[in-house]
Design goal:
Layout (H helix, E strand, L loop, with lengths): L4 E2 L6 H8 L14 E2 L15 E7 L2 H9 L9 E3 L2 E8 L1 H9 L3 E5 L33 E11 L2 E10 L11 E5 L8 E11 L2 E11 L5 E6 L4 E5 L1 E2 L25 H14 L4 E5 L10 E6 L7 E8 L8 E5 L9 E5 L2 E5 L12 H11 L4 E6 L16 E2 L24 E5 L9 E6 L6 H17 L4 H9 L1 E5 L4 H9 L63 H12 L3 E9 L3 E4 L4 E2 L4 E2 L5 H22 L8 E3 H4 L7 H9 L2 E7 L3 E3 L4 E3 L16 H24 L6 E4 L3 E3 L3 E7 L3 E6 L24 E3 L3 E9 L20 E7 L2
Parallel strand pairs: 1-33, 2-22, 7-14, 18-20, 24-25, 24-26, 26-31, 27-30, 35-40
Antiparallel strand pairs: 3-5, 3-6, 4-5, 7-8, 8-11, 9-10, 9-12, 10-11, 12-13, 15-23, 16-17, 17-21, 18-22, 19-20, 23-25, 27-31, 28-29, 32-33, 34-36, 36-38, 37-39, 39-40
Helix pairs in contact: 6-7, 6-13, 10-13
Length: about 850
Amino acid sequence: MRRTQTRVALLALSALVGSVLVATAPAGAVPAGATAAAGSERSPLENADQVRLVRIKLTGADMLDKVVAAGFDLDHGLKRVPTGIEGEAVVTAEQLTELEALGVEVLGDTEGFTWSDAADGGLGASAARTAQAVQPASHEATVRVVRADWFTTKGQGFLYVEARTTEGQQADPVVTMQLENDSGKGTAFGFPRTMSRFVDSGQYMFHRNLFKLDARPDQIRVTSSTGGVTTGYVSDWLENAPPPLTANPTYKWDFVDGYKHPQQLYSRAEEIARQYPDIAEIIYLPNKTNGYQRKAQATIGGTGQSAVVVSSAAWGHEGGNDITVEFVDRPGANLPLTVEVTGKAIRVLLAKDAAGALASTAAQVASALETQSQGLIDRAHPYRTNAGTGIVAATPGPVALTDFLDQKRVGAPEGDVPRGPATIPVLRIGKHRDGRNPGVLIQAQDHAREWVPAATSLEAAERLVHNYTSDQETKKIVNNTDVFFILSNNPDGANYSFFNFASQRKNMTNHCPDDNADPGRRDSWGVDLNRNYRVGSGHDGYSGGSTSCTSGTYQGPEKLSEPESKNIIWLVEKYTNIKFMMSVHSNGGQLFWQPGAYIADGRITTPRPPLGDEAFYWQSASRILSQVKAHRQTVVTPENVGGSSDVLYSSAGNVREDLYYTYGIYAFGWEVGGSVYNPATGNWQGGSFQPPWEGTPDLVSGHSETMEYANGIMEMFRVAADWGKDKKKPTSNLAPGGGTYSGPVDVRFETSEPATIYYTTDGSRPTMESPRYEATEFREPGQVFHVTETTTFRWFSVDAAGNVEKGYDPTDDGKRNNYRTATITIKQ
């Protein structure tokens, strides 16, 4: 089957912004009598006429890292395909040429793109790094079915299959796998088709495919080219979901009527706290952001060796925008280089040689401006990597410095967008805000251009307060959880996205040295807040975080360098009842958790969660995504659920891993705006960062995405409430169980609910330090023990809420031994 993924071009945002936010000239407009510097005009990326949204193909994760490090913003719209990674990029014609020079294949514009069905996953290109194939034990099948899921959407049925072969790493010959399915219980296998092999960072992952079928199969059969064959039963994915809260005719919803910039979000949060003081309050985070503000700048003299980049000492809105700089050619010979300052007007009197020719180099002029401008100029330097050896020419007149910021909308009062550092409010909702209930942190808009997550989070907050007194399910949520909403965790970047540059991803902190500090780079400055944390960090060698200050995934100069990331750590350390977290992003339709990062060489991930936690994540995901589907049948497919490094890519230093591994918080990441099946075309149509608010209700629509994913957030609250009330102890068994067997036997553990099992086989008492029952392989069920001699298993299980089977205390040093035990006796 061929799947078509049509992306709504990000450039369409220009029309949207024109209808919602009509930008005025920058506050630092050119003073009367001054001219704008040649290097100070708008970046081409701010002009929709000069950029394209194109589909690209990369050979794999190594190339992705290389391209991101070169400063290209490729972090979203990515999808693993059999031959590597395909994605989208917003580029100018010049950047398109640069991408091709890096070896990236440009597939064309996004409209009507069709995913390739070619196999291999680029393994051949990385064969030199391929590890030795793992040989299965003699009793094991060489092929395993990982998942076989059936779901329906828009009247169509789909089968998603993942299968793995123990010989998948084999590069020559490439291992192929064939899938067959029946047409229902009791029917024969048929409909053979080849599955696609997926490889990431040189490592075999699995074979997988999504197929459209007319009838739900009962079983599948997978055959490997190496001779292995196995069968598996088909499960239902998100089928027969309970109705969402919005199905209640008296339930109030659909509160958010459009995209909101940070000031609107924060104002509404504070208003909710005033309106509903019994169940809501505001917490102000202690670390102020660096601010929607910039130094005023100009690049004077082009971009060659004679060019000088000038930056004010004061912020643009605090006087920097009033500064002018003029390079003056005086009559005469043997004249020194000097600087005159009158008010905010700076005149650089250029040096002349004995023949009366101009003699000041760019490097000399830059030095003079820094030392003789009476403190007006903080930073002056040659353009980018130039040495500044060229002779500076006189300017036609004064050149105005500007910070290039548009701080108000047409018709809005002056100061609609505050320039200085911002204090981020947290809207806290809960009847009991004293730590007794499990806390849930909803963090939206780490990435500035992601407008739907903020709207989705606000919609969920509105539903809580408006339905508290009239809806019993909402009352249970508010009475039994403690919810913390950060509606925009990146207000500076979000304002820049709304009012200046729609594609802004990072915050606005400029950590760039002189070679990237000119205003032509201003749309590339900032830190990716979701790469700035401490666990699995790029600073420790994990992939997905860049050291380039202009990269879309720039990780910052050090871990937790940014106030926005410091605030999250402060919040979870102060409010230790926070046990759940959802970092809401867009777009792509993934729901994921740990592991989120890996070291590329060998694909060494951060530690995988215990099998019990993994099962709890999957169980919670099924509940959350069922409620998303209930709105308009949007299905987040199983291939887009799981550890983010497995379903998406490595994202070094993300917030989820810091919160899970450091504080034990069940931390989810959510890319809203998943693909929606279009039965008219037979294609899957994806979202975008800022889809038209109304759009096409059944396909691309910011409004529809906001409502359906708010359903999911509400269900996450119910997951947390159930977790907090869970006092039921888990049960577990060894299957097939203790007894006498005539030969070697395979056994595994089974649990009544998601739970982690600690066990021993050496006669010792099991404790929390004992081996944990692990998965066979990532995304697979628990391991199988091949027992060849008489063995006694001792074990206990612990569920996600911390309940221990039979009330066993693993810390009481043997005073109570009510753990589980079973002996497998093998006849010799």
